[in-house]
């Protein structure tokens, strides 16, 4: 079945360093969503990408959707301690045992001040 | 609009007991999905309800069940609890499901002793 894979699983950075997480799908995606879960919190929607090659920015966060719509990335410039958390990508599921969204396992980011 | 609410927030049970968790979606949202989150396993899809009907079901044993009421509130039940059921149980609501953005509740943290 369809899979959404994320790497790396963990990333430890020094405050001020950049961070990137990658999401890859076994199939072409119609769209991809990104969520952030702070420690002790719940996933919160960040953004959705729909178009091939799309790039969207939210302050220090840059989201990209690959040309083939099978991969995506989230890049954070000059990390801050407030960026700590787990970042999930999610691709469309097609119902059944997958549900409506298939989540990657997430990348857990820790930032050392 | 009020967000997704879940009760209780924390629960301690012993093996063999059963538990019922509750989720109230955002007003107007008719789709409610449930996820189990454990360290290293990411978000595992349990089931989705829409208009009081289970529309999708993940690969979990029959001990896990749920239902949805006419006001879209949803409950999930786990019978004959096992140690491995200890997890954060998250519900997420959306207008109609179908790959839309999901809005997560704070979760119920279940500990089985």
Overall description:
The complex is a heterodimer of chains A (113) and B (113). In chain A, the strands form 2 sheets. In chain A, strands 2, 4, 5, 9, 10 and 11 form a 6-stranded mixed beta sheet that branches. In chain A, strands 1-3-8-7-6 form a 5-stranded antiparallel beta sheet, with no helix packed on it. The model of chain A has no long low-confidence stretch (mean pLDDT 95). By secondary structure, chain A is mainly β. In chain A, 0% of the residues lie in helices and 53% in strands. Chain A is globular. Chain B is mainly beta. Helix content of chain B is 0%, strand content 53%. Chain B has strands at 5-7, 10-13, 19-24, 31-38, 42-50, 53-57, 64-68, 74-78, 87-94, 103-104, 108-112. In chain B, the strands form 2 sheets. In chain B, strands 2, 4, 5, 6, 9, 10 and 11 form a 7-stranded mixed beta sheet that branches. Chain B is globular. The A-B interface holds A 30-31, 33, 35, 41-45, 48, 88, 92-93, 95-106 and B 31, 33, 35, 40-43, 45, 47-48, 55-59, 90, 92, 94, 97-107.
Order of helices and strands of chain B: EEEEEEEEEEE
Distance between the termini of chain A: 41 Å
Query: What is the 3D form of chain A?
Result: globular
The chain pair with the largest interface is: A-B, 25 and 29 residues
Structural class of chain B: mainly beta
Q: Structural class of the helices, strands and pairings of chain A?
A: mainly beta
Mean pLDDT of chain B: 95
How many angstroms does the end-to-end distance of chain B come to?
37 Å
Number of beta-strand segments of chain B = 11
Q: What share of the residues of chain B lie within helices?
A: under 10%
Q: How would you name the oligomeric state of the polypeptide chains in this document?
A: heterodimer
Topology, number of strands of chain A = 11
Fraction of helical residues of chain A: under 10%
Q: Could you list the spans of chain B in which at least 5 consecutive residues all have pLDDT below 50? A: none
Q: How does the major sheet of chain B shape up?
A: 7 strands, mixed
| Rg of chain A, nearest Å | 14 Å
């Amino acid at each position: 079945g369809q899979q959404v894979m994320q790497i790396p699983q963990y990333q430890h950075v020094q405050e001020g360093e950049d961070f990137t997480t990658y999401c890859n799908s076994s199939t072409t995606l119609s769209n991809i969503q990104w969520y952030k879960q702070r420690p002790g919190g719940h996933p919160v929607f960040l953004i959705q990408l729909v178009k091939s090659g799309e790039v969207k920015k939210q302050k220090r966060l840059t989201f990209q959707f690959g040309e083939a719509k099978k991969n995506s990335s989230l890049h954070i410039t000059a990390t801050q301690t407030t960026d700590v958390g787990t970042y999930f990508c999610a691709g469309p599921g097609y119902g059944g045992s997958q549900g409506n969204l298939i989540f990657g396992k997430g990348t857990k980011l820790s930032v050392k001040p | 609009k009020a967000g997704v609410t879940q009760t209780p927030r924390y629960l301690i049970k012993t093996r063999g007991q059963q538990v019922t968790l509750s989720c109230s979606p955002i007003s107007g949202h008719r789709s409610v999905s449930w996820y189990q989150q454990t360290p290293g396993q990411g978000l595992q899809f349990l089931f989705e309800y829409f208009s009081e009907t289970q529309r999708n079901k993940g690969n979990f044993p029959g001990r896990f069940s749920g239902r949805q009421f006419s006001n879209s509130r949803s409950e999930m039940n786990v019978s004959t609890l096992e140690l491995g059921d200890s997890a954060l149980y998250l519900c997420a609501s959306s207008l109609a499901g179908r790959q839309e953005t999901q809005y997560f509740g704070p979760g119920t943290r279940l500990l089985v002793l």
